[in-house]
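We close this part of the discussion by returning to an individual protein. The amino acid sequence and the backbone structure tokens for this protein are reproduced below:
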Amino acid sequence: MKRRLPPLNALRAFEAAARLGRMTAAAEELAVTPGAISRQVRHLEEALGVRLFEGSKHNPQLTAAAAGLLPALSAAFDQIETAVRAVRDDDGGTLDVCCFSTFTVKWLIPRLYQFNALHPDIEIRLSAAERAIERERYDLIITVDQGADQGADGDGLALFPERLGPVLAPALAARMPVRAPADLAGKPLLHTGSRPNAWAMWAASLGCAAPTQPGPEFEHYYFTLEAAISGLGICIAPWHLVIDDIRAGRLLAPLGFQASGYRYIARRRPGHNKKLDKFCAWLCAQAQQTAAPNPAHAQLRV
């Protein structure tokens, strides 16, 4: 049976523009010009006989017809992509990996050169996600969940349990020594908007009262960590995000690190994929090297 469909390029252009909310973003994703996206959308509107966008050029809004069409098109393109990946399972190509921005900046990127040296034919394309993400769009998603230190569910690879501890710059530690939790009283504390309970979680793991003094709050964890490195105050940080800074002498962890009850999990796309197998094996090997703090940082020192 002959399929009566509009041109595929027009459908792709509309789906990207509608999903991303901007013609320029769709153009960047599809590696064309914004003008080409606009022309393809107009062609689709003419083929369907309906308007798909309304409002201004800089703030386009989906019409009712477009809102009904988008989910079906997105699902169809996802299925096509999955089928193509399954057929084209070679040793080279691109892997799409998504994880939280601070993890990407502080842990993954500093180690990624090692994977590139081992597998120069595999390109790792990184995306950051601070909120819920569409899982089917990525080959691998690194996320955080609450659970036991070891093991993971069916499609998840357990990387490492999270361990939290106060960290500060050496210059600040020289002026304001911290040798026990009680020493935090009156000290400048740093807070993170994306994780406002970090101090309370760490204190609960020790069975002590959480320090309550206010201090600067930063939107992202990597802002908070840079502020700590610069000597602006003391922050609670996961071991795996500061391991390189501690080894380089940029930060000190005078009270060690305590298990938070959370763990980092890598969730891979189902099915066999040689490129993904290689990356997952490398990722797990790297995680094993940072699975726990060094003995000097492993427990509270008083």
